[in-house]
Amino acid sequence: MGKQLVGQGVGRGIVIGRAHLLAPSELDIRQYHIQRGDVLHEVARLNNAFSLVRAELEQLRTNVAGDAPAEVKAFLDLHRMILDDSLLCDAPRDLVRTRLINAEWALTIQLEEVCLQFEAIDDEYFRSRSQDVRQVVERVLRRLAGGRPSPVDTDRPRHEGERLVVVAHDLAPADVLHFREDEGASLAGFITELGGPTSHTMILARSLGLPAIVGVADARNAIEEGDLLIVDSDAGRVVVQPDDETLTDYRRRIQLQGQARTELRKLRGKLSRTKDGVPVELLANIEMPDDVRDALDAGADGVGLFRTEFLFMNRDTLPSEDEQFEAYSRVARAMKGKPVVIRTLDIGADKVLNATARHSLGLAIDGGDGQAVEPNPALGLRAIRYCLAYPDLFLTQLRAILRASSTGTVRVLVPMLAHLHEIEQALQFVAKAKEQLKERRQKYDARIAVGGMIEVPAAALNLGPFVERLKFLSLGTNDLIQYALAIDRTDSAVAYLYEPLHPAVLQLIALTIRTGARARLPVSVCGEMAGDLASAELLLGMGLRRFSMNPAQLLGVKQRLFELDSKAAGRLAARVARLHDPQLIRAALERASSGAARKRAATVAATAHRH
Ligand code: PEP
Ligand code: MG
């Protein structure tokens, strides 16, 4: 068959492509504190990396052909000058000594410092030189990571139409955004050594419609650049350099996949409802305004979650109110009156702003060096906590969302609420933003609905304040699972404990759906669970009537709902509520769905017989 590697599959489907090993980039940098006794070692690492890059640049300078344009030599000289500047080579050493931080961290702090100085220069030419500084620092960082002098992607000639499977130790959400912008077309899938299946990186991979496998230990040793890979995300398996028989088998499966997709597309225009006619709303999760195309393409009933933080990432300045208004209203207009739920900024944890952008907030968190030092980011200043800490940031976004509400059906969703005072403060901010727009005589929907995410167990267990003050709820199961089970959703070491079917998680979900129904408050699920076919019947049985998911999953869930009977689903949910073991719960769900499959097969056979 070929060498096989296993991990956790993300998204659906199988792809075949060539391995592209990702060298550590500026976005793949570890930051940690060191012991005083390790200072010398860390400084030596820095010195060594600088020496290697110096030699590398000299070598390049020597190799430049005599007839090469003068700019090439000038460019190399410039890089050499930057490398030797004491701001870059001495200052990080001091940071290592005084702050007791690792070499990479010190270097990136200094990089941002230097770039800020460059960016403050009036002259356009000098301002843009910050890009050269970044490139030089990238070279040093690669050496620090023990990597090759340049990223592998520039080395190897590519064949026309070749599809790439990126193999990386870890990917940050920001990295995936780069791929989306730059390489989306040729990218076939991802494999990472770290990461959990509901990390934001993987949510983005899914939104690219790409299969991925996370937690593949030692992938970068087992796979070589250019290896042919089969990524089977359904089975959580990678086949390296498959033999002919395996390739033929997988090509056939890919063909079947394609046929199944064609069948699914026929459901686009159909109303989503269960077999017994209960209407269900199927909404789309999007990360960037352009994703609205996928939502429309999948026939979504609206946008159930617009993760706005991705508009703020990978850039050195924060988006202005006008820029945000443009983005939000583009989505609102494209959905032509269908609801668009815009979530306020959920920055923090694995979604970080660039240091320069953080700087522009006047950063109070850490001493103002541009690096947030948080011991536990998932439990730290994230989402609504971040917004309340930076009122101008929050108000700017709220004004932009409110203005967009005059261009379509817009709702505001506030993430990570846990306390009554957070709900009240968030609502006060909305009121203040409205006041400001009124003063400016700008249009907005005065009756805009404000809802809250239920993703902290404390919120699900104390829904009173939510029900009384908000107009809708959205269950963020990704975080609800993370916080209920005390496991970091991005950490592959504890990924085996990430259990959506844990009875405690199911109780929190059921409680929220029940409480919402009693209060006549709409409740949706917008975490990954909403797009999981195996969970669809259970959620339906708990009373869920609004599912929000990646557009790529929407038609599959619609097809599943057509097969489900809401009363039978209710009985299943009641049976599951008595079980205390996720394995038994999974088995009960599988039994129910294979029973449905048997009935489906029998109906098909009976129809065929009649004809
Ligand atoms: C969630 O937590 O389930 C959710 C939808 O939000 P995010 O994945 O962006 O944290
Ligand atoms: Mg969340």
What does this structure look like?
There is one protein chain. This protein has 611 residues and is α/β, with parallel strands linked by helices. The strands form two sheets. It has an eight-stranded mixed beta sheet with strand order 1-8-7-3-4-5-6-2. Helix 8 runs parallel beside helix 9 and helix 22 crosses helix 24 (566-577). The chain is globular, with a radius of gyration of 26 Å. The relative contact order is 0.10. Mean pLDDT is 87; it is low at 148-157 and 364-372. The site of magnesium ion has 5 residues, from helix 20.
Layout: helices, strands, pairs:
Layout: E1 3-6, E2 8-10, E3 14-21, H1 39-63, H2 70-84, H3 86-89, H4 91-99, H5 103-119, H6 124-128, H7 130-144, E4 164-168, H8 173-182, E5 187-192, H9 200-207, E6 212-214, H10 219-222, E7 228-232, E8 237-240, H11 244-265, E9 281-286, H12 292-297, E10 303-307, H13 321-334, E11 339-343, H14 355-360, H15 384-389, H16 391-404, E12 409-414, H17 420-440, E13 449-454, H18 457-461, H19 464-469, E14 472-475, H20 477-485, H21 503-518, E15 523-525, H22 533-541, E16 546-549, H23 551-563, H24 566-577, H25 582-610
Parallel strand pairs: 3-4, 4-5, 5-6, 9-10, 9-16, 10-11, 11-12, 12-13, 13-14, 14-15
Antiparallel strand pairs: 1-8, 2-6, 3-7, 7-8
Helix pairs in contact: 1-2, 1-4, 1-7, 2-7, 4-5, 5-7, 8-9, 13-16, 16-17, 20-21, 22-24, 22-25
Bound molecules: phosphoenolpyruvate and magnesium ion.
Phosphoenolpyruvate binds next to β10 and α20.
